Amino acid sequence: MPRTKEFKKGLKSHWGPLSGLSSWETVKCDHVVLNVKVRLLTIMKSQLAKLIDSTLVKATATKDEIERLCREAIQHGFGCVMVNPVYVGLAASLLKGSNVRVGSTVGFPFGVSLPDIKALEAVKAVEEGACELDMVMNLSAFKSGDYKLVKRDIEAVTAVKRISSDIIVKVIIETPILTNEEKITACKIVKEAGADFVKTSTGLFGKGATVEDVKLMRQVVGRDFGVKAAGGIRTYKDAVAMIEAGANRIGTSTALAIIKGAP
Fold first, then answer.
1. Is CATH 3.20.20.70 the classification given to domain 45-260?
2. What angle do CA 148, 117, 96 make, to 5 degrees?
3. Is 5 among the catalytic positions?
């Protein structure tokens, strides 16, 4: 079975020597169906928490909910909290002195603001205390084939790095509404424009993140670039599947449930 070696290689984690859990899986190799015992990736709570962006960006989010989000992030050691710009200052004050980073949305959720407006939004968020920015790509320009505008739009936001080189910019390409060819093109533009991560989706359109999309995105951007999976990731099993596929950041509004499901 010539594909056996390739199959085993595909099981290896992007995260090195993480622990595994044996399980029986049905595998098809060269049209032969076999029941084989494979070692599935498992991640401990402390490892997983650092990869999670605990997110609350709904329009009706309240101050009390943001405060609870930040308390939980400190308690469980989440890597980042993602909030809308209006709550960045509050989150920054609540998380001061902790290892939890503050993230803000930019051009959310449609991505069709002017580049100058996105640039200003990015600067204001950083001034309020954000050190991570999740911006939405200009989907209208992208679907129109105006890739120069798409790139310029992203560069307008990545320019905020002049304030601090520690700022991380993630670009949402909205995979559910793109073809595979468009996903490849979008990933290349994001990388060329100086961002740090390419992100699957806002979670507001279609099915959100899929293992297939994350694998494709990782293949396009390579090992030294960020891939954030977001949209529909609600359980520990979901999160592990995305990490195994190549994601090195997980965006979710159910971070607490995910971490409670970890071993």
1. yes
2. 115
3. no
Choosing from 118, 183, 191, 228, the catalytic residue is: 228
Q: Which of 53, 134, 153, 196 is catalytic?
A: 134
Selection from 161, 155, 90 nearest residue 118 by Cα: 155
Long-range contacts of 91-97 (CB under 8 A, 24+ apart): 91/66, 91/129, 92/128, 92/129, 92/130, 93/129, 94/66, 94/67, 94/70, 95/70
Retrieve residue 255's tokens.
């971070």
Q: What is d(CA 17, CA 20) in angstroms, rounded to the nearest whole number?
A: 9
| Reported pTM | 0.86
Instruction: Enumerate the domain spans of the chain.
Output: 4-41, 45-260
3-state DSSP call for residue 248? coil
Active-site option among 170, 199, 213, 238: 199
Q: Is 140 helix (H, G, I), strand (E, B) or coil?
A: helix
Concerning whether 8 is annotated as a catalytic residue, the answer is: no
- Count of CA atoms in the C-beta half-sphere (13 A) of 141: 21
Q: What is the pLDDT of residues 28-72, one digit of tens each?
A: 434 444 443 444 577 889 999 999 999 999 999 999 999 999 999
Phi, psi angle pair for 161, to nearest 5°? -65, -15
> b/e for 198-213, b at 16 or more Cβ within 10 A?
bbbbbbeeeebbbeeb
